[in-house]
Amino acid sequence: RPAWHGLIHAYGDFLPVSDRTPIVTLYEGNTPLIPVPRIAERVGRNVSVYVKYDGLNPTGSFKDRGMTMAISKAKEAGAEAVICASTGNTSAAAAAYARRAGLRAYVLVPEGYVAQGKLAQALLYGAEVIAIEGNFDQALDIVRVMADTYPITLVNSVNPYRLEGQKTAAFEVVDSLGNAPDWLCIPMGNAGNITAYWMGFCQYREQNRCDRLPRMMGFQAAGSAPLVNGAVVVHPETVATAIRIGNPANWQRAIAVKEASQGAFNAVTDAEILTAYCLLASEEGIFCEPASAASVAGLLKLADQVPSGATVVCVLTGNGLKDPDTALQQESDRFHRHIDPSEATVAKVMGF
Ligand code: F0G
């Protein structure tokens, strides 16, 4: 097998790049598709369930797939600075790739609603971090105006190169399974990723690399579910801050994907998200961030609708290390603190 040098190197034939494109890469992509038999057992019906663990990308989320393309193309076009609005992961990826390319990076985030790890990354990678006293939707409105007004490239998922890069995750799923799955379960925020996956599956289908297309099953947090409710959510709320979005930029495209794939959009509550988040960690050894667990929470919720014997892929979009605060809040009662440093006390705590 050839060495992995990033997804543009691997899938360049399917991407809008040329010999003149300066490839900015951190060797993203090639993430594992991992079976999760305990989750499959809970679903029942002899289903096979896998997770696409995109939290293993260089900055810890699927955003790296889009950012290697967006920043390479920005560099090719002679840009000197990029900007994005973000619930955290996009800002980390934009900062890393922009700085690697020698570009300035400006990121607007909703103050108080970005997981600690993501903020730490954006700052350390060298972005100008601007926390606004507003939410993601307001930040996106502002950066769109900035990019229209000043010489600065927008790298949110409305930048077409972002989705081009992200579609490679679907290629990898098909390359691993030998075909497309029956169901693809995915969390939705701005709905760029579900759009990108569908582009990837369709492109591979056209090339006869798979002989079917999945049903695209999108999940939103119940307090931030505009695509499920069919209406903008003015004050989105959820523990899954990555998908705390009330007015998705890719709204129309997501609806088109749902219809073309005979998929469905559903909401999962914060309690359901946190249950799936803890199950993945404690029963499968897989630590994802809360927003990512929405895909598994959704599958468990719709278990009785999965065709028997089906193959299901749940996308785990981000690494659990991004959000240590939420993790620690879940298991605080099992954290034995202030223990006397003696064998007798430790044995007692252990239950002997
Ligand atoms: N999961 C994670 C971990 C995310 O960070 C995001 C989006 C999504 C799922 C949803 O993906 O927007 O393509 O539907 N995060 C963006 C950000 C909004 O700014 O990092 P989507």
Helix content: 40-55%
* Pattern of helices and strands: HEHEHEHEHEHEHHEHEHHEHHEHH
Give the number of helices: 15
* Average pLDDT score: 97
Instruction: Summarize the main sheet.
Output: 6 strands, mixed
Beta-strand segment tally: 10
Low-confidence stretches: none
How big is the Rg?
Answer: 20 Å
Shape call = globular
Strand content: 5-15%
The small molecules bound here are: ligand F0G
In whole angstroms, how far apart are the ends? 50 Å
Structural class: alpha/beta
Instruction: Identify the strand order in the major beta sheet.
Output: 1-2-10-7-8-9
Structure report:
- This protein is of the alpha/beta class and 352 residues long.
- The chain is 43% helix and 14% strand.
- It contains 15 helices and ten strands.
- Strands 1-2-10-7-8-9 form a six-stranded mixed β-sheet, with helices on both faces. A four-stranded parallel β-sheet has the order 5-4-3-6.
- Helix 3 runs parallel beside helix 4 (89-100) and helix 7 packs across helix 9.
- The structure holds ligand F0G.
Please tag this protein with its features:
alpha/beta, 15 helices, 352 residues
Task: Provide a brief overview of the structure.
By secondary structure, this protein is an alpha/beta fold.
How do the helices and strands line up, and which of them pair or pack?
Elements: H1 7-11, E1 33-35, H2 37-43, E2 48-53, H3 63-76, E3 81-85, H4 89-100, E4 104-110, H5 116-125, E5 128-132, H6 136-149, E6 153-154, H7 160-166, H8 168-177, E7 183-187, H9 192-206, E8 215-221, H10 226-229, H11 251-260, E9 264-268, H12 270-284, H13 290-301, E10 311-316, H14 324-330, H15 343-350
Parallel strand pairs: 2-10, 3-4, 3-6, 4-5, 7-8, 7-10, 8-9
Antiparallel strand pairs: 1-2
Ligand F0G is lined by residues 61, 63, 86-90, 157, 187-193, 242-243, 289, 291-292, 317-318.
